[in-house]
Amino acid sequence: MxxxxxxxxxxxLLAITGAVLLVVYVQGADNRAVQGLEPVNVLVVKEAxxxxxxxxxxxxxxxxxxxxxxxxxxxxxxxxxxxxxxxxSVSLQPGEQLLAARLVDPxxxxxxxxPVPAGLGEVTFLLTPERILGGRxxxxxxxxxxxxxxxxxxxxxxxxxxxxxLFHDVLVTAVQKAAPETQxxxxxxxxxxxxxxxxxxxxSAFITVARTDAEAAKMVFGAEFxxxxxxxxxxxxxxxxxxxxxxxxxx
Length: 251
Hints:
By secondary structure, the chain is of the alpha+beta class. Helices cover 23% and strands 29% of the residues. It contains four helices and twelve strands; from the N terminus they run αββββαββββββαββα. Strands 5, 6, 7, 10, 11 and 12 form a six-stranded antiparallel sheet that branches. A two-stranded antiparallel sheet has the order 1-2. The chain has a two-stranded antiparallel ribbon with strand order 3-4. 20% of the residues are buried.
């Protein structure tokens, strides 16, 4: 009789202990689930971003969203303030979280180049400094392309010369240029012309851009039979469709 009583008490204690452990486990699971749902801020892509886009140009292409912590991978960014000088290593799609691994130093990809967006090809032009902002263009810049032509003597008066806008948003994928001019110092060492002035380029530069085949053909024609001029764009650059400029319409 006593052994049965002791067995019953032991079974009751085991049942109570099991119930307590179950409650503690469930509460812990709830707490873990709640922690996983705690919202954290992360940058999310708003529109398609091509590879090679500068971090400084991403501000209006991404937005800050609150997401459950469990849905945010390691390395997700919530600000861009410390990403200056980097570019996107791949194309980014709308709804994608912006990861630190997607932003790299352009030199890590290939010296002086940025990736070519899908569907585009590359074409290179040899341009003099005054046609490329005095040699200040860099890989990753976006430019507006202009062409100028001189027609033969048989052209109508006022239409022998013309300048027109070809394209906006042309991505520069590579720049190859000579080193700046240097001069000898009093000590005999070479140095730039001045420490603070912008160094003048030592000649022309090869500028490589990404374009479709049809667009590249137009730029090749412009370079072959006329001249190309590149204007660097900014986030606030106005983009219009001006008519072709001739002497007759200049004033």
